[in-house]
Amino acid sequence: MVTITTAQARTTVSIADDGAEWNAYVDRHADASGYHAWAWRHVFEQAFGHEAVYLVARREPHVVGVLPVVLFRSTLFGKFAVSLPFVNYGGVLADDDQASEALLLEARSLLSRRGARHLELRHRLRHFPALPAKDHKVTLLLDLPSTEEACWQGLDRKVRNQVRKAEKSGLTAEIGGRSLLPEFYAVFARNMRDLGTPVYSPRFFDAICAHVESRVRVVLVRLGSEVIAAGITHTHRQVMEMPWASSLKERRDLCPNNLLYWTVIREAIRTGHAVLDFGRSTADEGPYLFKLQWGAHPEQLWWEYCLNGTDALPDHSTKNPRMQTAIALWKRLPLPVASFIGPHVVRSIP
Known about the structure:
Blueprint: E1 2-5, E2 10-15, H1 19-28, H2 39-48, E3 51-59, E4 62-74, E5 78-83, E6 93-94, H3 97-114, E7 118-123, E8 133-134, E9 138-143, H4 148-154, H5 157-168, E10 171-176, H6 181-195, H7 202-212, E11 216-223, E12 226-236, E13 239-247, H8 256-270, E14 275-281, H9 286-292, E15 297-300, E16 302-307, H10 321-331, H11 335-346
Parallel strand pairs: 5-7, 13-14
Antiparallel strand pairs: 1-2, 2-3, 3-4, 4-5, 4-6, 7-16, 8-16, 9-14, 9-15, 10-11, 11-12, 12-13
Helix pairs in contact: 2-7, 5-8
């Protein structure tokens, strides 16, 4: 346990064991993401088998900060930690700099005790300017008007034409819950294989629905009975986010992605959300440009690193030269093989 004492106050940090207390703090913190909720620790533990260590800072009797940490023991990358892996946002939530520093100090101690090389903090703003950081990712946010008609009229003409093309091609959209997961996963797994990326286990999405089902919806786009595009939305406060979306490359001439995102936008407006979060992207690459055409504006993301015994920042990205050969080989795997092996590999790639 870490303790920091100043003339004004004494801040202590320990491992949290009270989900209700944790959630009460997260619920009232203006900067919290939906992924800070206690339920997500069960998703990481059950779907991937990783240990979650959730740190809480107190100035008795009040909680003044939290930091959820997920620990990895990987044959590929060794021991490291992320806050938070497999999702877009995480990191420190705190009332002030003293609480933030106390949480970071305890995180350093945790790395040392576990022999982990680094902790990656996925922040929307810089919290620790002295830490090394990456700014390779942005999120794209679309401010939503109060009516569908106003949103439609505000879209670029090319985007509207692509939505119309999808509808004229006979594509239809459906929104539902957990029962649609198998159809979502069939498209998602195939798309990930085609991209050369190992796919998550179905257990990941099952665990999400099991623990945060009230916040998620599954969206499908069909051509007849065939699902050709699919996504999962996650809501938090006034924001609807689509962190996972895929389509079949051989059907993209029908513009299924356009109908998928327009369906999500309509649903977000219908349910009173003010912002659609298109999820993280690399600037100027294809997905980024696709999202930009909807009128979304980019917001810089900051991944800050607490290092232990190394000066080198980790590189788990697909741009790592060591990954290029693996990606090329993965694209040639039969889908059943890729779907079987993928979850064992991707659990080590946060």
